[in-house]
Structure formats: C-alpha cells, structure tokens
Amino acid sequence: MTQATNSLPTSALPQSGASGKSGSGLQGSDGSVEVSGLTVSYTDSKKRKHTVLEDVSFSVPSGTFATVIGPSGSGKSTLLKILGGLYGAESGQVFIGGRQITQPNPDLVTIVFQDSCLLPWRTVLRNVALPLETAGVGRQEREDRAKAVLELVGLGDCMSRFPRELSGGMKQRVAIARGLVVEPSVLLMDEPFAALDEQTRYEMGEELLRLWDRLKSTVIFVTHNLSEAVFLADKVMVLEGRPASVGQTVDVVFSRPRDLGLMVTPEFHMLRDQLYTSLKRDRIRSSGTYSWSHQGNSEEGTQ
C-alpha cells in the first residue's frame, strides 16, 4: 500500500519547555473525558420542545482515539460543541481532565470543524498563530510555536502561503495545526475530512494517526463514514435512538500502527458491517426520518 505524501516528521515534535509549559505539549496531559447524564433540548419557532440527546453517559481514557457515529440528526455535532463548552446542556455534566466544562476552555479543548475556517487575508503561519495571539502570547513565542506545529503536520514549507494557494487537504492540515498550537488536552474533530475526495480522505486519516501516535492526545472524532470510524479508533461510540443516547461502545482491537491495507481484511469488514447492521436496525426502530449511507460518503440532514 502506497503511503501518503508529506508524512509527519518526528523532528518537528515540540521540545520540552519550548512553549512555556512544562512537558512537551500534549504529551503527558490529562485528557480523560467523563460525561454523565447529558440531556440537550431545543425549542422550535412554535414553542415546541425537542430533545436531541438524552441521558448520554460515557468515558474516554486519556490518550484514547474515539470516534462517534450515528444517523443524521442524532446530535453528534451538538455533543462535540457541548464537550468544547460552546453549548450548554439542559442537564448532566462534562469533565475533562477532572475539570468541569461549562464554557470554552481553549487551553484544555480545541475543535476542528468540517470547514477549515481559515482567514483568507492571513498567511498559513498567522492563521495557526491566531489562537495564541488572541490569548495574548507574545509575537516571537507564538510564531515559534506555530512554526513547530506546522513542521509537525508537514507544512513547514507553506508558512508564507495564503489559504487560496492551498489544496483542500492542506487547508485541513492548517486547521489541525491551529487546533494543536495551544497544546490542548483534548482535540475534538467534527467530520474534518468530509469535503475531501476519498483517496485524500483516507491518506489524511493515516497522517492523523501518525500525528496522534507521536503526541498521544485524546481525540474524539465525529464521522458518518463507517470505514473511517473503524480505521481510526480505539473505541467507536454509537449514538442510537431518538432522542439519542450512546447505544453501544465497540472496542477496536486492531494493532497499531495501522495502514490502509487494514481496510481490505475480513476482520475489518466484519466490524464495519456489524456497526452498519446496528445502525440500520436502529433507524427502523426510530421514529422520524433518518438517512444513512453504508459507505458514509454522503448523507443529508441536520446533525
């Protein structure tokens, strides 16, 4: 299997103390996630209450790569935004590294969205350094940290470029670098590769795993693509029902490091098909309209 280009260089790993924090960035950070009894509702224009998530509870040990799947409308993106402190819950609690999350904590948790959300008038370097600038970090330090993380994601030669000069995959690398530059304990990723072509998507998945293997951060990754969910994860959490809760958690025991050759093995197909069957069964049981793609390449509906 041909490896993806622009692999992540080990020489770019942040050095101890380089950022002004103890340790080496994400390495050694407490990224444990504990969610208990989370319920989320909204009221529509006719004053009718709709519950999206109900009694959601799960735990993710520090350093785990977890993926979240579920039908469209099941609240996957909403869940990530609550974990990131962007939304409030009707009831329940979220703890990350032992700290309760009730508002954004960019030093603890960062989010990478499907859209890279880069500022077109800023260079790659200045886009990545933006969270540090907002936090009041001095110019030299924020540029040094931004350069180090861009080297880490294989974009050390693109620092002076503007977003319009980058491919879709390169833009997502920049977005990931921007999420990592603040050295969070947990990286939340909301379908970050959904807009990419299939080959680039899986190559980016390989690259992400190489990055994660070096840093050992906690990652919670939302996807509609079952193959992607299985390939990346230590554990797959399945949102089921309406309102949704965590219906099952599947441990993925394939050895690491992984490459794309894993996807053609019978064991991989068996696990992916098990998840598909479970989701299909849940769709039949649930009321309302859910759409689901076996391949995970397209899906309509509000998340």
Summarize this, please?
This protein is of the alpha/beta class and 303 residues long. It contains 7 helices and 10 strands.
Question: What is the topological layout?
Answer:
Layout: E1 33-43, E2 49-60, E3 65-69, H1 76-83, E4 91-96, E5 99-100, E6 109-112, H2 124-134, H3 139-152, H4 168-180, E7 186-190, H5 198-215, E8 218-222, H6 226-232, E9 235-240, E10 245-251, H7 266-285
Parallel strand pairs: 3-8, 3-9, 6-7, 7-8
Antiparallel strand pairs: 1-2, 1-4, 4-5, 9-10
The proportion of residues forming helix, as a percent range, comes to 25-40%
Order of helices and strands: EEEHEEEHHHEHEHEEH
The tally of beta strands, per DSSP, is 10
Distance between the termini: 34 Å
Biggest sheet record: 6 strands, mixed
Compute the CA-based radius of gyration.
19 Å
| Outline | globular
Number of helices: 7
User: Which segments are poorly predicted (pLDDT under 50) over 5 or more consecutive residues?
Assistant: 1-28, 289-303
Residue fraction in strands: 15-25%
Mean pLDDT: 83
- The secondary-structure class comes to alpha/beta
- Identify the strand order in the major beta sheet: 6-7-8-3-9-10
General description of the model:
- It is a single chain.
- By secondary structure, the chain is an alpha/beta fold.
- It has a domain at 109-183.
- Helix content is 30%, strand content 21%.
- The strands form two sheets. Strands 6-7-8-3-9-10 form a six-stranded mixed sheet, with helices on both faces.
- β9 (235-240) and β10 form a beta hairpin.
- α2 packs across α3 (139-152).
- The radius of gyration is 19 Å and the shape is globular.
